[in-house]
Design brief:
- By secondary structure, the chain is mainly alpha-helical.
- Helices cover 56% and strands 7% of the residues.
- It is built from five helices and two strands; from the N terminus they run H-E-E-H-H-H-H.
- It has helices spanning 2-6, 32-37, 42-66, 71-79, 84-98; strands at residues 11-14, 27-30.
- It has a two-stranded antiparallel ribbon with strand order 1-2.
Length: 108
């Protein structure tokens, strides 16, 4: 979830069948309605899935590198900027995809 926030992907953790605790959910919920409102089609969601996969793989690599699943340790690793290049590349790809679609401002 933290990596996704850093690369401009908005989602939240969500419990799924088989989770041992709702405090440590194993799933995510994506606001697909917001994406379809912007005009995304099925083929665009394949790109979204690839970006999510990149973010998840980076998070797993980071977690493996620190040898801990503690959130505090993960936040320290993010703060030391070791993975900035990886994070910035995924963010660039996310924004490149997002910029292809109109953003509807409901306040105007």
């Amino acid at each position: 979830e933290l990596i996704c926030e850093l690369v401009d992907i908005s989602l939240n953790k969500n419990a799924v069948l088989g989770d041992k605790s709702a405090l440590s959910p194993g799933g995510i919920r994506i606001g697909t309605a917001a994406l379809t409102t912007r005009g995304m089609k099925e083929s665009d969601f394949i790109e979204v899935a690839k970006l999510l996969d990149s973010a998840i793989k980076l998070a797993i690599k980071m977690q493996d590198d620190i040898g801990s699943k503690k959130l505090a340790d993960f936040k320290k690793l993010i703060a030391d900027n070791r993975y900035n290049d990886n994070i910035n590349e995924i963010k660039r790809q996310v924004n490149q995809l997002a910029n292809k679609f109109e953003f509807i401002d409901i306040n105007n």
